[in-house]
Amino acid sequence: MERKKTMEKRKKKQEESDVNDDPFARFPLDLRIEILMKLPARSIAKLEFVSKVWAPIIRGKEFTDLYMTQPRLLFRVHRQGLHLFHSSSQENPSYDHHDRVSITLDPSLYYVFSPPTHGLICGRKDSKVLIGNPSTGQFITLPRARTRRVGIYSFFGYEPANHVYKVLSMRSIKFSL
Are strands 164-171 and 138-141 parallel, antiparallel or unpaired? Predict the structure, then answer.
C-alpha cells in the first residue's frame, strides 16, 4: 500500500514537471485553441501524443466541435486509380492543405463522393459504400446491403444530438403510370 502511494506521488510530480516545462502551457487556453485551430488535421492528430498539455485540449469536445465546424472547401481529382484530395480554408485561403490519398478501388467503378460531413466523405457506387477521412487518408468499405434488388441509394449524414455518423441505404421505387 505504501509503495503504491509513493508511485502515485512520483507520477503526479513528473506530470507537474512535464506541464511546467512545456512553454505552450504558459499561454492562455483561448490562445492555445486558436493556434491549434490553424493546423491541419494530420498535424493535430500527431500533436495529441506529443504533450500532456495539448492532449486534453485536442480530445476535448469543445475543441473538436470548433475544429469540425470550420468552413472548408474540399476538392477531389481522380487520376489513374489515385484520388487527390485538396482542402482549402475559406477563412484563410492563403493556407492550403492537400493530401494524396491512395485508395484501392475497382478501376472499372466510378465512385461518386458526397460533400464533406464533419470532416468525413462518403463514396458510393451501386451498393458499394466507403467512408473516408481525407485528412488522415483512412478509408473503410462498409458491408453491402443485403438485397437482391438493384437501384440502392445511400445517403451519408451526421447526427449532432448524439455525435454519430450515419449511412442510410434504401432501394429505389419505380413508378409506372
Answer: unpaired
Helix/strand/coil for 29:
helix
Which own/partner contact pairs does 112-119 have at CB distance under 8 Å and 24+ positions apart? 113/76, 114/156, 115/74, 116/72, 116/74, 117/156, 117/157, 117/158, 117/165, 118/68, 118/158, 118/165, 119/41, 119/68
Say what the pLDDT of residue 126 is.
72
What SS3 class is residue 142? coil
pLDDT (tens digit, 9 = 90+) per residue, 29-66?
Answer: 888 888 888 887 777 777 877 777 788 888 888 887 78
| Residue 120, strand partner residues | 117
0.85 exceeded by the pTM? Answer: no
Q: Cα–chain-centroid distance for residue 27?
A: 27
Torsions phi, psi for 114 (to 5 deg): -80, 165
Residue 7 has pLDDT above 60, yes or no: yes
Domain coordinates in residue numbering, the chain: 2-68, 72-171
Helices 29-37 and 61-68 cross at an angle (nearest 10°) of: 40
